[in-house]
Each structure stands twice: as C-alpha cells, then as structure tokens.
Design goal:
220 residues; alpha/beta; Uracil-DNA Glycosylase, subunit E; two-stranded parallel ribbon; 9 helices; 40% helix; globular; disordered C terminus
C-alpha cells in the first residue's frame, strides 16, 4: 500500500510498528527511544518510517519539526494523512527518487507547540536539537546527500554543513499546499530541485526492504 496518506489506515500503521525492529531500521528505532528517554514525556518524537531506507539510506531529507499528523501516526513519513506529506510523496516519485534510498527526519525531531496548535521551530529549538542530529548522522554510514526542506530547515544550513562537510547539501521549498498550489511554477521548481538531487546520487544498489504490506485494511 505504497501510496499517499496510507498511514491513515489502522492496518498500515500496525504493520509499520511491527516493522520497527527490522534490521535496516532497528538502530534508528533505538535512537528514537533513547531520545525520548533523554527528553522526557513532554516531548513527542515520532519514529522513522520502516518503508524508507533506514540505515542503508544515502539521502536524508530534513524538515522543520513533526506536525500533529506525525505525532498521531507515530512516524515521520511521506505516508502521513496530510497534504504536505502527500505532495512530498508524489514529488519524490515524479523525480524518480527511490524511497528506499532515503530517510526522512526533522531538524527539530520533537513536536513544538501546544496541545492545540503547532508553532514554528525557533533558534533555541534548533540549537537544542543539534546533539540529536549529530547522533543521527553517525547512524547513516552511506549518506551522500542531505536535503533541507523548507525555510527553517535551510536556516540551519551552516550547522548541518559543519556536522557533515563531505555530504552534498541542498535546500528546497517546503511542499506545503500553500506553496505547491499557489502556482504551477512552484511545483515545477520543486520537481526540478528533486531531479537535481536524484541526478547526483551515486549509482549504487540499495538493499530492498521486506514487504510492509498489511494483509487487512481498516480505517480510523
């Protein structure tokens, strides 16, 4: 069920939870649990999506911070049931970037805001999250490219570059409906930027992930 918004289906979410201990993603699942324990119960830190490449990934997408849908599903994922995630899914597919070559995360890996409303990540949030990003990069031995998605992520470009000086660094607009739907040229700009990322990835084989297809389906 590799399609946009599929994490809105209970059976799909359940299958992803069961997949958290698969070898390609298990070190990242441990990383998330350790980060949760370090930050405490007031910080919501979703898991990495096992449908992506995990520690085999050579392309890391860094967004700003997890939104309410990521907190609800429990995953930072292009499959979350929101329009930005849907756009991200479709744009990557159009650009020809195999999701098994990618891992998706956030500059600030925990939810920022209140119980009713998310707020933009600020400089203090980004600074507090720097040790977590340093730890994450050590878990991605094949990393070739980092794509900063959105203005807040791009504002951390110098810090990210210092942490990973040998990695290609890109910055692209956030695929929110407010940007993508505003003008056809905006969508074209995003696709073109992702085509550039795809063109520069090394031609190496990527370990395929086991099937994560649920045997049943159901809604919330």
């Amino acid at each position: 069920m590799d399609e946009p918004k599929s994490l809105g289906v209970t059976a799909v979410r359940d299958a992803r939870v069961l997949a958290l201990e698969l070898p390609h993603v298990e070190p990242l699942s441990v990383f998330v649990r350790d980060l949760r324990a370090c930050m405490g119960p007031n910080y919501d830190v979703p898991y990495f999506d096992p449908a992506d490449g995990g520690v085999h990934a050579d392309c890391l997408f860094l967004l700003e911070a997890p939104g309410p849908k990521a907190v609800k599903s429990g995953f930072v994922s292009r499959d979350n049931p929101d329009e930005s995630a849907k756009n991200f899914f479709l744009l990557n597919r159009e650009a020809g970037i195999d999701r098994e070559r990618t891992v998706v995360w956030n500059i600030v890996p925990w939810y920022v805001g209140s119980a009713t409303k998310i707020r933009p990540a600020n400089a203090l949030d980004i600074s507090a999250a720097a040790p977590a990003l340093t730890a994450l990069l050590s878990l991605l031995p094949h990393l070739h490219s980092i794509v900063l998605v959105g203005g807040k992520a791009a504002s951390a470009r110098n810090a990210v570059s210092a942490l990973a000086p040998e990695v290609r660094l890109y910055a692209i607009p956030h695929p929110s409906p407010m940007f993508v739907n505003r003008s056809p040229t905006n969508r074209h700009a995003l696709v073109s930027a992702l085509h550039q990322v795809a063109a520069n990835l090394p031609p190496r084989p990527v370990t395929a992930n086991p099937s994560l297809q649920p045997t049943t389906s159901g809604g919330d």
